[in-house]
Amino acid sequence: MAIFEPVVEKRINERKEKLADKKARDMMNALIDVEDESYGKLSRDDIIDILLMYLNAGHESSGHITMWTTYFLQRYPQYLKKAKVSTFYQISQLTKKVQLFFYHYLFA
Length: 108
Hints:
Layout: H1 4-16, H2 27-33, E1 35-36, E2 40-41, H3 44-75, H4 77-106
Antiparallel strand pairs: 1-2
Helix pairs in contact: 1-3, 3-4
């Protein structure tokens, strides 16, 4: 939580001083700007809690999907084989595109 405090504080101060670009929209700007009729604006601690929640949720989602994918690919080798073939095909297609891109500029 201590890592987020100076970042949130700096962004709030920039918004107060009108230094932040109004066109630059991101999640923190939205959290700073949001206002509810009943509760008003979010506090600094609320903003930090929400940012931490999203950080942890993203980490947990990525970790779980990686774990379950690995588990099922090991349990069902026929799908692992298909995944390898598909991955190899996609990489070979990408490699061809990159080679064509560089070839065009080398001999232009």
